[in-house]
């Protein structure tokens, strides 16, 4: 499961874990402060924001080549571009500084930060282990010719699956990024699996937007999104040649965030090319 869904509301599990860690840290800090010390609630929230800022700055610095031509993208946080460990280090250093400056905060702040970080690390590690143990679903889809193709037939090489719809603004914004990646990375197979829309509406969208995509497939009942546990669009999944999930990205991809996600394949051994279930045409 990649998202937590309640009615029409959906949130990525990794985001939910981060918010839960902050809530736990605040609760533990408050409880400890009741026995003696200052309430660390406002300090914990400021540390959280500081850590997020450090994580974003670190990501932009590492992937600056993708931002230099359009610096405004730096403040567009929708691409999910964050590096966790620099953020954690900054939070720890800032915690030591705050504790040194305000003795009354030391115990509540220390217990709060320790409990929040421990929860986040353990939960994130468990989620990663769970995700990477999942396999490519055995699901039948349709191509633009209306023919049935098996998703499992695409195994045998690195696979990127994008779940999208034409009515989804983030899907539309990220499509040129994925189109360019498909052209630049012939060693990877990109599948664009449309969710519950007609072939005609998708063909019209691609034509009007001037997009040339290979391997456009159709999932009329949204079964693939249910199988992978993500009810949010767009969702992009990264599978090894053996069909093992290497990683996922919920939300809009930028050039930088896609480049980072594709690093999942850096340790995947090269495999011989295989024949795809349908020709690589603009609407296949």
UniProtKB/TrEMBL annotation:
Localization: Cell envelope
Pfam families: LGT, Redoxin
SUPFAM superfamilies, sorted: Thioredoxin-like
InterPro entries tied to this protein: Lgt (IPR001640), Redoxin (IPR013740), Thioredoxin-like_sf (IPR036249), Thioredoxin_CS (IPR017937), Thioredoxin_domain (IPR013766), Thioredoxin_ResA/DsbE_sf (IPR050553)
Domain of life according to the entry: Bacteria
Keyword Transmembrane attached: yes
GO molecular function: disulfide oxidoreductase activity; phosphatidylglycerol-prolipoprotein diacylglyceryl transferase activity
Protein name as annotated: Peroxiredoxin
Bilayer-crossing regions: 6-30, 42-66, 82-100, 109-130
Lineage: Bacteria, Pseudomonadati, Pseudomonadota, Gammaproteobacteria, Pseudomonadales
Keywords, ordered alphabetically: Cytochrome c-type biogenesis, Disulfide bond, Membrane, Redox-active center, Transmembrane, Transmembrane helix
GO (cellular component) term, any one: cell envelope
Residues in Thioredoxin domain copies: 130-267
Alphabetical GO biological process terms: cytochrome complex assembly; lipoprotein biosynthetic process
Predominant cellular place of this UniProt entry's protein: other
